[in-house]
Amino acid sequence: MAPAATGIVVALAAEARALTSARIHPERLVSLAEGAAVWLSGMGPDAAHRAAHGLADAGAGALAVFGVAGALDADLRNGSLFCPERVLDEHGRNYPVHAPWRARLQQRLAATACPLCTNGALLSVREPLLTTAAKAAARGRHRALAVDMESAAVAAVAQERGLPFLTLRAIIDEAGDSIPAALNNSVDAWGRPRAWGLLAALCRHPGLLAELPRLYSRMQRATLALRAVAEATGPTLGWSP
After folding, report:
1. In this predicted structure, which of 45-49, 91-95, 216-220, 224-228 has the lowest mean pLDDT?
2. Is residue 174 within 8 Å of 74, Cβ to Cβ?
3. Which burial class, exposed, middle or buried, applies to 25 when counting CB atoms under 10 A from its CB (0-12, 13-18, 19+)?
4. Burial, 56: exposed, middle or buried (Cβ in 10 Å; 0-12, 13-18, 19+)?
């Protein structure tokens, strides 16, 4: 990849499809236009850490995280975009994003119809926050507006390698949403449904069937917002050295 281009970490297959129509293979670099590249890492900080190092080793001039996140603040609604000022982890480490890059991205996203928040912090956690109580506790402790599982790991690699860093998230679940653990456990590391796992969950908990349309609608709205970002910013997500 071009040394000045963006290396983008995405955790989920649906996030990758929102970014590009190119065929994306898990856990490897896939080249995009304008010298950029994407790495489909799978969920969690360890996977994101490996992806970020892989992109940096390949010559990325900047690192970004692109995908969905959960809201901790009630004002962040499903389908809105969040480009935070900083990323936090559960141990209190604080990683500021690259301010000029964030400003350029904000200008480009002004042309989209998606609500955009560019203030405050994004919290990265090791395990998903599935209940409203868990989200409220994280909000109270860290004062973050939203939560993901990958951004702090990529930010740490960017800091270590001396690279600009930015994260752009579309909100999928709102602060008042709960996600049934049985459904969360029925997808693989890349967010793809495991057919037998999903069937087993529905057999054990038939009431979960009623949750599927809501969750599908939430994901559709978030991925539409991500597609609008990709169209507005191009494959580099607005990075310019």
Report:
1. 216-220
2. yes
3. exposed
4. buried
DSSP structure class, residue 168: E
160-214 confidence digits (pLDDT tens): 999 999 999 999 999 999 877 656 666 667 776 655 555 565 566 666 556 666 7
Tokens of 162: 């001396």
Say how many C-beta atoms besides its own lie within 10 A of residue 5's C-beta: 24
The structural domains of the chain, with segments of one domain joined by +, span 6-233
Contact 115, 80 (CB under 8 A): yes
Q: Tokens at residue 159, please?
A: 């800091």
Sign of CA dihedral 66, 67, 73, 75: positive
Least confident of 48-52, 63-67, 175-179, 202-206: 202-206
Q: How far apart are CA 25 and CA 39, in angstroms?
A: 8
Fold of 6-233: Rossmann fold (3.40.50)
Q: Virtual CA dihedral for 230, 80, 187, 65, nearest 10 degrees?
A: 50
- pLDDT value for 64: 98
pTM: 0.91
Q: Distances in Å between the alpha carbon of 67 and those of 140, 161, 190, 208?
A: 24, 22, 12, 25
Dihedral, CA atoms, 146, 150, 151, 153, nearest 10 degrees?
140
